[in-house]
């Protein structure tokens, strides 16, 4: 096959590749931007080109090379000054402004050769749990740009120290999952800092009965009847919510230990399954590699 024809057939193949996006969300400081960098480098090492997009108009620093940076369009501090709003209100304003007229966004993200995006979002969880903005954005990616989207909800493993913290973290992940209605994976970040913590397996296996039993003595030594009563009620509530999560297998977490390539690989494998990565790819014609 001549070089010209070969190039033509290869470009037809790449046109037929699917488009994929990882949407990285979670509470402030849980490690979203760090995850984006880890995943970008992991994909690069696996010879997959990806583009990282910073959609946090307040993020001044990040380690990944951002192909698109929302701060080139709008910045939180400019909105704070011009609209006289606080930091959270300004962030919401920035995203509303960005999604009101999506022409800038479409211009930035609709024309890559390799359509694999890792999108870094802000840490205000109200954006995912009860506001419509991130949902609007996922719909734009899915319905207008035909991306296979997977939402990754990150939680800092340091907050998962006991059953009540774990259940409240699980509920916030569940609330984002229900709200966004896309394939969804929960990740426990910063596991490198836990170093051999025995309790971690219980959390990863979602062994809620054991977790609740572990904390059943909480407040038992207190002499205050009011505190004892409160602890009893709290444990009952945790047990009921835990049972619900358990019975319906609603939430599960994957650990991320940045020192351990296998943990990153496992996460990528789950994302590939969730986004059906590679299933849209047409097999190459046998002649494509012949000059
Ligand atoms: N040891 C360790 N530290 C981490 C990890 N991920 C993030 N960090 C640290 O946690 C802090 C916050 O990380 P970021 O990646 O900025 O978190 P973020 O979720 O993007 O934060 P916001 O954008 O402000 O919501 C930084 O000091 C990181 O170096 C990790 O896997 N291991
Ligand atoms: Mg960040």
TrEMBL record:
Compositional bias annotation for Acidic residues: 278-291
Key words, A-Z: GTP-binding, Hydrolase, Nucleotide-binding
Region named Disordered: 272-291
Secreted as UniProt keyword: no
Coiled coil: none
Oligomer and partners: Binds to RNA polymerase II (RNAPII).
Species name: Blattamonas nauphoetae
Keyword Nucleotide-binding: yes
Protein name as it appears in the record: GPN-loop GTPase 3
Family: Belongs to the GPN-loop GTPase family.
């Amino acid at each position: 096959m001549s070089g010209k024809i070969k190039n033509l057939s290869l470009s037809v193949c790449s046109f037929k590749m699917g488009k994929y996006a990882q949407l990285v969300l979670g509470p402030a400081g849980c490690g979203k931007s760090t995850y984006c960098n880890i995943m970008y480098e992991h994909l690069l090492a696996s010879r997959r080109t990806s583009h990282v997009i910073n959609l946090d108009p307040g993020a001044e620093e990040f380690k990944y090379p951002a192909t698109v940076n929302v701060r080139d369009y709008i910045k939180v501090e400019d909105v704070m000054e011009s609209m006289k709003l606080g930091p959270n209100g300004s962030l919401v304003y920035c995203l509303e402004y960005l999604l009101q007229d999506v022409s800038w966004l479409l211009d930035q993200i609709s024309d890559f050769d390799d359509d694999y995006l890792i999108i870094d979002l802000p840490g205000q969880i109200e954006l995912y749990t009860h506001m419509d903005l991130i949902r609007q954005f996922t719909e734009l990616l899915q319905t207008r740009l035909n991306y296979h989207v997977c939402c990754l909800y990150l939680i800092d493993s340091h907050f998962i120290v006991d059953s009540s913290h774990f259940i409240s973290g699980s509920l916030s992940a569940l609330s984002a999952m229900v709200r966004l209605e896309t394939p969804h994976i929960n990740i426990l970040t910063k596991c490198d800092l836990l170093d051999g913590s025995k309790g971690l397996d219980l959390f990863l296996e979602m062994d809620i009965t054991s977790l609740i039993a572990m904390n059943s003595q909480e407040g038992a030594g207190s002499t205050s009847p009011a505190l004892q009563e409160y602890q009893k009620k709290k444990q009952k509530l945790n047990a009921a919510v835990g049972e619900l999560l358990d019975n319906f297998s609603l939430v599960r977490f994957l650990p991320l230990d940045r020192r351990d390539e296998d943990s990153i690989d496992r996460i990528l494998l789950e994302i590939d399954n969730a986004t059906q990565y590679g299933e849209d790819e047409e097999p190459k014609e046998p002649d494509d590699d012949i000059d």
